[in-house]
Amino acid sequence: MAMSIAVVLGLMQLFLWWFAPWAARVYADHVQLPLRDNLLDVPPQLPSGIPMFLLAAALVIEGLLRLGRGRGGSTRWLPQLTGAAGGLVVSLSMLVQTSLLRAEGPMGRPATSVTSVVANVLLGLALGALAGFLAARFAVLLHLNAPAPDQEGR
Q1: What is the distance between the alpha carbons of residues 111 and 97, in angstroms, rounded to a whole number?
Q2: Which range has the worst mean pLDDT, 6-15, 62-71, 101-110, 140-149?
Q3: Which of 66-75, 97-106, 132-141 shows the lowest per-residue confidence on average (mean pLDDT)?
Q4: Which end of the chain is less enclosed by CB atoms within 10 A, N or C?
C-alpha cells in the first residue's frame, strides 16, 4: 500500500514540476502577458515541497511491515514503528531535497546546522509514529464499515 501511494505522489509531483510551468508559459503567450511568472528562475514551490524520496520511505515501510508480520509475534507496535521509520526517512530526505533545490544567499547553498538536523529527526520520528498510530485506528474504522462477505452479492 505504501508503494502505491508513493507512486501516485511521485506522478503528481512530475505533473506539477513539468506541466504547470509549461502551461503557465503557454497561457501567458496566448493572452500576450508581458510579465511572466518565475522571473528569478527558482524551482516551483508546490512540487518542491512534496518529498522526492517517497519511494525510499515506502520501501522502508513495506520492508518493516513484511518483517514484522512474518515473524509471527505481536504486531501491536508495528504501525508506530513503521510510521516512525517512514517519518525519519522523509525528514532526512527533505533536508537533502531542500539543500539541492533552494540556493539562498550570495555564497550559494546554506549549510544545514546540527540543530536543524536533530529537530528534523525528532519531529520526523514523533510525527511518523503518530501517523502510524492514527493510520492503524482509521484502518479499524474502515474495516468496521465494510460490508459483510455474505452481503456483497446482494
Answers
A1: 13
A2: 101-110
A3: 97-106
A4: C
Domain span holding position 39: 2-147
Query: Is 62's pLDDT higher than 60?
Result: yes
**Cβ(87)–Cβ(127) below 8 Å:** yes
Query: What is the tens place of the pLDDT at every residue in 17-47?
Result: 888 778 877 888 888 887 666 656 667 777 7
Q: Is residue 90 part of a domain?
A: yes
The CA distances from residue 86 to 2, 8, 44, 110, 141, in Å, are: 10, 17, 25, 26, 23
Q: Are 47 and 17 in contact (CB under 8 A)?
A: yes
Q: Are 146 and 97 in contact (CB under 8 A)?
A: no
**Alpha-helical segments (H) within 71-113:** 78-101
Secondary structure (3-state) at 22? helix
Residue whose C-alpha cell reads 550570495 in the numeric block: 106
What DSSP letter does each residue of 33-45 carry, written as one string?
Answer: -SS-S-TT----H
